[in-house]
Amino acid sequence: AMETMSVTGTDTVLVAGLGPVGLGTVVNAVYRGARTIGLSRNNYRRKLASELGAEVGLNPDEDDVVEEVKSLTDGFGASKSVETSGQASYMNLLMEATRRKGDIAIVGESGNYTVHISDDMIRNGLHLHGIWHWNLGGAPDMLRMISDVGESLDKMITHRFPFSQIEDAWKLQMTRECGKVVVHANG
Length: 187
Known about the structure:
Layout: E1 12-16, H1 20-31, E2 35-39, H2 43-51, E3 56-58, H3 65-72, E4 78-83, H4 88-97, E5 98-106, H5 117-121, E6 127-130, H6 139-148, H7 150-156, E7 157-162, H8 166-175, E8 180-184
Parallel strand pairs: 1-2, 1-4, 2-3, 4-5, 5-6, 7-8
């Protein structure tokens, strides 16, 4: 998504959904020098996103997300937005909080979502990207980024479990009181 949208240091990136994919998106956007805003209902993950470099974490149940994003961007909205949760309610917010001629990448899979082509897309000049895979040719750049942001990735991985405790790992992941949970073969 970051590559497809050509995210740079001049962008403000709004990341909707701060699970492991969304947290990774925050790390990637910050690595590229972008100003980053996180969007999640989960307090733990909003705090973790801030520790990973997001300027602010907004809660759609408590904050007027569209107004907050516009306030943080001189009234324009985010230049790039990424939906990582698969929740249609977040897509609605991204459509409103992304500036004219901005980009929205959809990474999170969900059921159906209705886009009003004229009102949501054409009249705002929004560019919509469906992101399913990455390009093998980009592997050297990805590996360089992983090397450069290693400390952030270590912080994003909040819990590690041996394979013998996979049930405990899964239960923790389901509470959403974690970042990325890793299960390893030792133990």
